[in-house]
Every structure is written in C-alpha cells, then in structure tokens.
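Hi P.,

Sorry for the delay on this. The queue was packed all week, but I finally got your sequence through. Input first:
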Amino acid sequence: MRTIWGQDLGQGGLTSRCLDLQASSNAATMETEPMLKTEIVVPGVLKIVTPETLYANDFLSLAPQVDAIIENYGAIRLLIDASHLERWDSLSTLEKHANFVKTRHAKVSRMAVVVRRDEQHWLVGTVNLFFHPEVRSFNPGHESEALRWIGKANPNVVTTVAGEPIERIVADIVDRH
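Then the structure:
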C-alpha cells in the first residue's frame, strides 16, 4: 500500500488528507483503462468528463484526440466537466497532467470548466492568469451557458437564439428524414 499526501481546501481551511492506494487487481485495471470520457460536441469543440480520480493513462488516451482536433482546426475549444474530480492517483500523474497542459495550452482558444466546489472555481481563476486560453468556470447544471460561452470564441460557429450550435440542429433534422 502506498500513501500519498494531498491538501484539501475545505470550508474549514487548509487541511491535510491522506490517500491510500492499494495494489489490487481492481486498482490495476483502473490504471490501464482510461477513465476520461470524451465527446466531440461540434467540430473543434471537445467535451471531457473527468472521473473522481485521474490516472496517467487518461492523458495517454486523450492526447491523440486533442492533437487531431488541433491539427484539423488549428486550435481547440474545451468543455471540461471536472465536477466529480477529487484527486490524481499519484504525483507522477499530476506531473503528466501538467505536461499535457503545458504542451497544448497555446492551441486552446477557450476552455469552460464545470466545477462544484469553491476552491475549484478559485483554481480555474488562477489558471486563467498563467495560461494562454481564456478559461472560465461554471457550476453544474450550467453546461448550456458554458457551451454558449465557448461558441463566442469562434465567429464561424453559428448558434440558435438558445445558444445551441446550428450543426446539431441540422444533424437532428437530417436524422429525422
């Protein structure tokens, strides 16, 4: 069993917490299978849903998807639902995450992050000070607002009055006929 120390900015202030990682077959399976869920919302926009714990392989599986969108469109817009994110499985995974961001942030035009805790909103605001893309946090249940905000980054994205990308409506109409 390995123990990794982390810090939690809860309502009571900064407190230490301990994360125990057990070497079990279940934990080994989780480390080899990516847990991030992705969906292309409209061309050039990728939605990423994080699990409670991030693993190094999550970034290995995400890289080709992100890189392909950047190659096809010259940039990417991201909607990240991190409302369930609690931790990284190791310091090595946190380092892989940081390197993943460092190598691609210049090609991100806008990033909306759905978070549920105050300290996550604070972290998103801090990230906005140091990285290239425009970053904004949203509360759970405000995904439509986040998508509208992301759409403003690209004048070629046509949306309805409700903020829905026109591509999705056209696809729905075509599917019905």
